[in-house]
């Protein structure tokens, strides 16, 4: 049935997407299969800006109060920051609030934004646009999220927080409707799932409160929402960003954003180029995963983009030193789940969708959500009652804060682009003028996987680029520059749908920036160790699940 | 104080090939120091092959014999060589960075209380000082050092110092020596099974990639390896190891083994950077691939564009003739 | 069974090597440091020997900067009992100096075994273990891939060119570990928690300048562009001629 469904001109990703493996992601506390069992007061899943800010705020509250709190942070990367990737231009307000005793110069930033420019590109020209009000970055700083995370991690460790790197949380442990902790992924399995000599069984970490700060497209957050039937007005939608860091011969003095070329007009997205140091530049391309052309390839488009004189003049003669990719939750206000707390659980940062696309910001919302959650959790623990009712204070704090105010102001701006770039730009302009009041109401969005893709032969935005190894690179080169040294013999962590037709195989191959999927004569080949945890196919195709700790990329300055 | 002591190796009474490299390296130092090369070999009796060493630049070859010297005896070897080095007043002592040399050189250096530069790829005398070059950080950088103590002790990376013939004959003598009984005893040597040369150690490595199309086709590479008469090992790219076609032990590349053979032949391998990381220090790289744009051609010294199932058998045939 | 394991903090093997402005050392900015992988085999072996003996102590010793405490904690998280850091800002290029500092530390402490990795993956020095043995006049076997111990004696196997040497030795002894000796365990969560509370002694290292002086650290020469010899089987003869006459590898 699957193969014949629909017309041959279009293809619907949802049709071939396996369901979320709920039985694997949510298990009863006490289920067989675990090794050690540890009890903590709070377990935080994910050492990103949200999780670490939560840990720091909790530890500070406990210290001030003279109570002892046992806080653990689980991180799937082998070391802090190695799975963290962002642009990034950071709004420092959450840092100021979390570290009131520190000065601006103490924060792990690369430097303040001095000049900024926005361009509309064509294949060989550029038109400078006025900087839209939402994108003005005066007072913000350029930073590497890897560096921010390492810095926050040191602060947390100094406060006595236990940070466990190399331990992915694979399942939520539940007892009735209550979340009581997590089970980590096993380590040391062979390709067939049999234990090797150094096998390490999963650990159960039970805690009074579990904070899900897994980042974009968090598996446990998705599972919890589905299990507790927590929804939002719109489904979450995503974009995929591919990023590189270059050592350049020429200094870049301005932060640059571009729109237009090389994206087709029915795709939403744009590029960024930021100076990290006089001879170090971060740049990337972000494309909404609701693009229409099934053959679109974000990595390929990004490689093509670098040939444009605007980028080439900085990159030529330089060296690409790091590569990475990550999805971004772009749905904004209407995609934030109606509640981000439940019995024994809170959901933070990107996992809850706290990202404002028009201003390209998420890090300070993530940190701020972590701090609010810490306050609600601390109060609940003081009352000995980590129930949904008490933890609901977290939602109330977020709702009353600048997080939801900011997201509300730009609530329809990203959504306006669902019908194409030019119509979207016009509507977004009107929204800015009216402070978000135009057009009124909510623009309804389908899930990305429910957007039909064109199968028109011959149209291949971004595919067919032949990398030259100097300015442009293959996906495999990228994976190498991501520092990915995943053990080759671990069991596959990707769940692929059954009877995937060739058009889906082609679609996955182009979608995945890391060359995990390859179309072969007899179907689909999956090079699972290439995966760099961007989660793009979890949005549109094969499901991602947590695998052996320390697998995936080893980002350093992303 | 300008002579150089070259410490050679024998196994079962036959001089090992690396010995001529050690003499060559020692000669290079002795020329710079304007001194003589004394070559030293420890053995149970007479050693085959030492008469050729004069031709590589040894002024004198001394065989020290003792019943316990048939196999490597770490403590006795250390004592005898350190004593000889001290008594002879050498400016430098040169070892091979072989399994034995890497074990022996540090012991001798510690016994003499001087520093050691292990596994060097170049030696020189600059302004009277012994300098060496050593690859460090997995070959990603070269470290240049000077050895300020006397004697300067170095061990030479095998396969790097190409023996140079000299029109000169050295003298030879054999001396029976006393040696203390050691606590560490090599009781046996298990020879590796024929044809199981490790990719990391083989002087020639022939690696196959996805271009081989199916596991059974590695036979084509095994036949080529066999034609080299036991000097070649068959390696594999990550893609084919991942597919389960070849064992992980054979994998060359970032997540496999790093190899630097004299000759590396990449067959049906496109040349992903992960693969290149494991073989780019090979002395000579040959690529055989049907895609002329494959990145492997950018690092290969010699490329042949074509169907590997036609090119490789032809190569095997010609190599057989050469070795026939 | 009382065992010392001498370890080293080294840059991750995936580190992109950038040379510092002095032209003599690695620019450590942004470099991630790890426990030397060969030392992991040594730590694992020590833990197994202790477990097998049913009693004993595994002590981690290193010469390094203050940051090496983190590396010691990694070994403690695997299960070692305590750590000693001989602290220095600069590790000398001469391995004998490091060996002297370590030998002075482990001397007369009643160790049955002193274990090392066969080499560190940064400097490839391959020497400190046997030097310590020589300085302490202890039996030593390097680069072992198999080990059996019993009755105050040990038997080890070490790979040599084209074969394997079987070596017997009495205890106490110094051994250096090669890949294949064992499969190092991953630190368990409980181990990581416990490691935070295990004793770690820090004392200044006494190190001389030694007899090796670094003149320069440089990137390796770039390979020269290769060339395509020809197409199809017809190119084989020309390829062989070049390998014989130009490259001189046949």
Topology of helices and strands:
The complex is a heterotrimer of chains A (558), B (324) and C (250).
Chain A: E1 10-11, H1 22-25, E2 26-28, E3 37-45, H2 49-65, E4 71-75, E5 89-90, H3 93-98, E6 111-112, E7 115-121, E8 126-129, E9 141-142, H4 145-158, E10 162-165, E11 169-175, E12 178-184, E13 187-189, E14 195-200, E15 204-212, H5 219-228, E16 238-247, E17 254-260, E18 269-277, E19 280-288, H6 298-305, H7 309-315, E20 319-329, E21 341-342, E22 345-347, H8 349-352, H9 363-382, H10 388-399, H11 402-409, H12 421-433, E23 453-454, H13 475-481, E24 494-495, H14 502-511, E25 517-520, E26 523-526, H15 536-540, E27 543-544
Parallel strand pairs in A: 2-11, 3-4, 3-15, 4-10, 7-17, 15-22
Antiparallel strand pairs in A: 1-23, 5-9, 6-9, 7-8, 11-12, 12-15, 13-14, 16-19, 16-20, 17-18, 18-19, 21-22, 24-27, 25-26
Chain B: E1 4-7, E2 10-11, E3 14-15, H1 18-33, E4 37-43, E5 60-65, H2 74-88, E6 92-96, H3 99-112, E7 116-120, E8 122-126, E9 129-136, E10 141-147, E11 152-156, E12 171-176, E13 185-191, E14 204-208, H4 219-227, E15 232-236, H5 238-242, E16 263-267, H6 273-279, E17 284-289, H7 296-299, E18 302-305, H8 308-323
Parallel strand pairs in B: 1-4, 1-6, 4-5, 5-12, 6-11, 7-11, 14-15, 14-16, 16-17, 17-18
Antiparallel strand pairs in B: 2-3, 8-9, 9-10
Helix pairs in contact in B: 2-3, 4-8
Chain C: E1 2-7, E2 9-11, E3 33-35, H1 37-53, E4 57-64, H2 68-78, E5 82-87, H3 95-106, E6 113-117, H4 128-136, E7 140-150, E8 153-160, E9 163-170, E10 173-177, H5 189-195, E11 200-204, E12 212-218, E13 227-231, H6 236-246
Parallel strand pairs in C: 1-4, 1-6, 4-5, 5-11, 6-10, 7-10
Antiparallel strand pairs in C: 2-3, 7-8, 8-9
Helix pairs in contact in C: 2-5, 3-4
Describe this structure in words.
The complex is a heterotrimer of chains A (558), B (324) and C (250). With 558 residues, chain A is α+β, with helices and mostly antiparallel strands. Chain A contains 15 helices and 27 strands. In chain A, helix 9 runs antiparallel to helix 10. Mean pLDDT of chain A is 93; it is low at 1-6. Chain B has 2 domains: 4-176, Rossmann fold (3-Layer(aba) Sandwich), CATH 3.40.50; 204-323, TPP-binding domain (Rossmann fold, 3-Layer(aba) Sandwich). Chain B has helices at residues 18-33, 74-88, 99-112, 219-227, 238-242, 273-279, 296-299, 308-323, and strands at residues 4-7, 10-11, 14-15, 37-43, 60-65, 92-96, 116-120, 122-126, 129-136, 141-147, 152-156, 171-176, 185-191, 204-208, 232-236, 263-267, 284-289, 302-305. In chain B, the strands form 4 sheets. A 7-stranded parallel β-sheet of chain B has the order 7-11-6-1-4-5-12, sandwiched between helices. Chain B has a 5-stranded parallel β-sheet with strand order 15-14-16-17-18. A 3-stranded antiparallel β-sheet of chain B has the order 8-9-10. Chain B starts with a strand and ends with a helix. In chain C, strands 9-8-7-10-6-1-4-5-11 form a 9-stranded mixed β-sheet, sandwiched between helices. With 250 residues, chain C is an alpha/beta fold. Chain C has helices at 37-53, 68-78, 95-106, 128-136, 189-195, 236-246; strands spanning 2-7, 9-11, 33-35, 57-64, 82-87, 113-117, 140-150, 153-160, 163-170, 173-177, 200-204, 212-218, 227-231. Chain C is built from 6 helices and 13 strands. The chains are: A alpha+beta (558), B alpha/beta (324), C alpha/beta (250). Chains in contact: A-B, A-C, B-C. At the B-C interface, helix 2, helix 3, strand 7, strand 9 and strand 10 of B face helix 3, helix 4, strand 7, strand 8 and strand 9 of C. Strand 13 of chain B pairs antiparallel with strand 9 (163-170) of chain C.
């Amino acid at each position: 049935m699957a193969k014949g469904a629909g017309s041959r001109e279009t293809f619907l990703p949802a049709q071939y997407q396996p369901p979320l493996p709920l039985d694997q992601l949510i298990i009863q506390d006490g289920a067989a299969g675990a090794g050690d069992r540890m009890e903590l007061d709070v377990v935080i899943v994910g050492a990103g800006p949200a999780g670490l800010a939560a840990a720091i705020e909790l530890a500070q509250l406990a210290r001030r109060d003279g109570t002892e709190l046992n806080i653990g942070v689980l991180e799937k990367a082998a070391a802090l920051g190695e799975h963290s990737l962002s642009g990034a231009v950071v709004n420092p307000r959450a840092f100021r609030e979390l570290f009131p005793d520190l000065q601006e110069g103490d924060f792990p930033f690369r430097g303040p934004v001095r000049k900024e420019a926005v361009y509309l590109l064509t294949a060989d020209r550029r038109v400078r646009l006025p900087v839209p009000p939402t994108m003005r970055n005066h007072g913000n700083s350029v930073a590497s999220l890897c560096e921010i995370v390492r810095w926050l991690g040191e602060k947390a460790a100094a406060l006595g927080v236990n940070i466990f790197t190399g331990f992915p949380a694979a399942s939520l442990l539940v007892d009735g409707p209550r979340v009581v902790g997590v089970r980590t992924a096993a380590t040391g399995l062979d390709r067939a799932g049999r234990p090797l000599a150094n096998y390490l069984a999963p650990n159960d970490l039970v805690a009074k409160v579990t904070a899900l700060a897994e980042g974009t497209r968090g598996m446990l957050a998705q599972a919890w929402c589905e299990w507790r039937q927590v929804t939002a007005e719109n489904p979450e939608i995503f974009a995929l960003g591919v990023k590189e860091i270059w050592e350049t011969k020429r200094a870049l003095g301005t932060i640059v954003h571009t729109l237009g070329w090389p994206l087709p007009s029915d795709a939403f997205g744009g590029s960024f180029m930021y100076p990290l140091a006089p001879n170090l530049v971060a740049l990337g391309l972000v494309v909404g995963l609701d693009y229409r052309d099934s053959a679109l390839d974000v990595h390929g488009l990004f490689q093509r983009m670098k040939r444009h004189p605007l980028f080439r003049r900085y990159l030529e003669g330089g060296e690409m030193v790091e590569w990475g990719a990550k999805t971004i939750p772009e749905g904004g206000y209407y995609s934030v789940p109606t509640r981000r707390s439940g019995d024994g659980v809170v959901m933070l940062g990107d996992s809850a969708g706290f990202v404002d696309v028009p201003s390209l910001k998420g890090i300070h919302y993530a940190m701020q959500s972590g701090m609010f959650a810490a306050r609600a959790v601390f109060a609940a623990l003081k009352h000995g009652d980590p129930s949904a009712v008490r933890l609901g204070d977290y939602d109330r704090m977020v709702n009353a804060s600048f997080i939801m105010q900011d997201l509300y102001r730009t609530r329809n701006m990203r959504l306006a682009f669902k019908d194409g770039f030019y119509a979207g730009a016009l509507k977004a302009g009107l929204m800015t003028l009216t402070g978000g009041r135009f057009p009124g109401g909510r623009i309804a969005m389908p899930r990305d996987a429910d957007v039909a893709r064109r199968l028109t032969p011959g149209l291949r935005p971004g595919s067919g680029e032949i990398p030259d190894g100097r300015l442009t690179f293959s996906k495999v080169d990228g994976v190498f520059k991501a520092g990915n040294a995943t053990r080759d013999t671990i069991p596959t962590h990707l769940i692929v749908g059954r009877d995937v037709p060739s058009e889906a195989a082609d679609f996955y191959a182009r979608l995945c920036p890391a060359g995990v999927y390859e179309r072969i004569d007899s179907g689909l080949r999956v090079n699972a160790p290439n995966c760099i945890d961007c989660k793009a196919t979890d949005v549109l195709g094969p499901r991602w699940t947590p695998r052996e700790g320390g697998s995936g990329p080893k980002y350093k300055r992303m | 104080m300008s002579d150089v002591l070259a410490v050679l190796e024998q196994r079962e009474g036959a001089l090992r090939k690396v010995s001529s490299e050690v003499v060559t390296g020692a000669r290079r130092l002795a020329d710079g120091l304007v001194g003589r090369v004394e070559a030293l070999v420890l053995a149970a009796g007479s050693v085959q092959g030492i008469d050729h060493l004069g031709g590589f630049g040894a002024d004198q070859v001394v065989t020290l014999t003792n019943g316990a010297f048939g196999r490597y005896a770490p403590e006795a070897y250390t004592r005898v060589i350190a004593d000889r080095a001290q008594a002879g007043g050498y400016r430098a002592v040169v070892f091979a960075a072989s399994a034995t040399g890497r074990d022996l050189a540090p012991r001798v250096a510690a016994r003499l209380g001087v520093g050691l530069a292990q596994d060097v790829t170049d030696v020189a005398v600059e302004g009277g000082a012994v300098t060496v070059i050593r690859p460090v950080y997995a070959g990603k950088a070269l470290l240049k050092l000077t050895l300020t103590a006397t004697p300067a002790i170095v061990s030479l990376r095998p396969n790097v110092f190409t023996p140079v013939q000299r029109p000169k004959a050295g003298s030879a003598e054999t001396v029976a020596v006393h040696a203390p009984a050691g606590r560490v005893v090599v009781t046996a040597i298990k020879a590796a099974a024929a044809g199981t040369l490790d990719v990391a150690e083989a002087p020639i490595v022939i690696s196959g990639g996805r271009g081989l199309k199916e596991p059974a086709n590695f036979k084509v590479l095994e036949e080529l390896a066999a034609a080299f008469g036991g000097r070649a090992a068959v390696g594999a790219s990550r893609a084919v190891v991942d597919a389960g076609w070849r064992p992980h032990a054979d994998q060359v590349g970032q997540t496999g083994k790093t190899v630097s053979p004299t000759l590396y032949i990449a067959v049906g391998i496109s040349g992903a950077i992960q693969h290149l990381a494991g073989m780019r220090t090979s002395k000579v790289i040959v690529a055989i691939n049907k895609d002329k744009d494959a990145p492997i051609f950018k690092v290969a010294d010699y490329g042949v564009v074509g169907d590997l199932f036609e090119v490789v058998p032809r190569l095997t045939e010609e190599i057989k003739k050469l070795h026939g | 069974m009382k065992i010392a394991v001498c370890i080293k903090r080294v840059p991750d093997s995936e580190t992109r090597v950038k040379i510092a402005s002095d032209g003599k050392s690695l620019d450590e900015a942004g470099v991630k440091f790890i426990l030397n992988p060969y030392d992991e085999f040594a730590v694992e072996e020590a833990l197994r020997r202790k477990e097998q003996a049913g009693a004993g102590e595994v002590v981690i010793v290193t010469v390094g900067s203050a940051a090496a405490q983190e590396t010691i904690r990694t070994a403690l998280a695997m299960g070692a009992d305590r750590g000693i850091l001989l602290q220095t800002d600069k590790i000398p290029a001469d391995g004998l100096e490091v060996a002297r500092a370590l030998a002075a530390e482990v001397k007369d402490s009643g160790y049955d075994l002193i274990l090392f990795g066969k080499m560190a993956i940064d400097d490839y020095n391959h020497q400190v273990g046997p030097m310590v043995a020589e300085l302490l006049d202890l039996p030593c076997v390097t680069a072992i891939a198999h080990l059996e111990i019993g009755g105050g004696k040990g038997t080890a196997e070490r790979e040599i060119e084209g074969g394997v040497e079987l070596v017997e030795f009495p205890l106490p002894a110094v051994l250096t570990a090669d890949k294949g000796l064992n499969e190092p365990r991953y630190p368990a969560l409980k181990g990581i928690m416990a490691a935070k509370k295990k004793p770690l002694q820090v004392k200044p290292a006494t190190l001389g300048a030694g007899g090796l002086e670094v003149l320069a650290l440089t990137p390796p020469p770039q390979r020269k562009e290769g060339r395509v010899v020809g197409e199809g089987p017809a190119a084989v003869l020309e390829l062989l001629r070049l390998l014989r006459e130009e490259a001189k590898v046949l």
